[in-house]
Design brief:
The chain is of the alpha/beta class. It is 49% helix and 16% strand. A five-stranded parallel sheet has the order 2-1-3-4-5, with helices on both faces.
Amino acid sequence: MPAQTILVVEDEPRIAAIAADYLRHAGYQVAVAADGAQALEAARTVRPDLVVLDLGLPGIDGLEVTRTLRSGSAVPIIMVTARVEEADRLLGLETGADDYLTKPFSPRELVARVKAVLRRTATSGHEAAGAQLHLGDLLLDTDRLAVTRAGTPIDLTATEFQLAATLARASRAASSLARSCSTRSAATPASRRSRDRRARQERGASWRPTHGIPATSSRSTASATRRRTCEAARARLPRATGMGPRC
């Protein structure tokens, strides 16, 4: 199994180097980006299995990078920041981060959190459902932010990929709605009666139509039963006694 790739996005070279060294020592392949623009480009080209993302980046900050990644990918994100306020941590998690690490941090703790997040996402199938989308003859891999046509890679910017993914999801939703409407329209009264008849036959019960032929009333059934009982009693008594019941 090939080594998993971790993208470290950190604008402080010393911190980035230490984090990369510890992750490599743990058996991961590591790519490093120094700002938000590089991070988005690396996410598209490197296709990381997890992103360690500093919140306070120059230019495009960590929150905006997270939003952009989340618009077309479920890649796990561990957000790293010097901000210690609870509101900042909650904002990062609500934006789409999977975990949060506050500076200064232990490199060993970083490695432990990376392992935990990767294990958790692999177990829960975090990215399994809907990782690939189809748009015409294009295949979009939302996990890797990659696009191919007949196996040939196609280069798209992050914005272009986001637009293509939105169109693909809308097309899939429209197709699902059309199939649902078609199924409901096919369920006519005649088809439902036919389905009910088959169900009764499978249970071994005789089928009676519920429309067109009126069922025998309970009153006429009771009257016929009394008449048969009366005639049977008269047949058992001698005619000469004149004691037979009147029917």
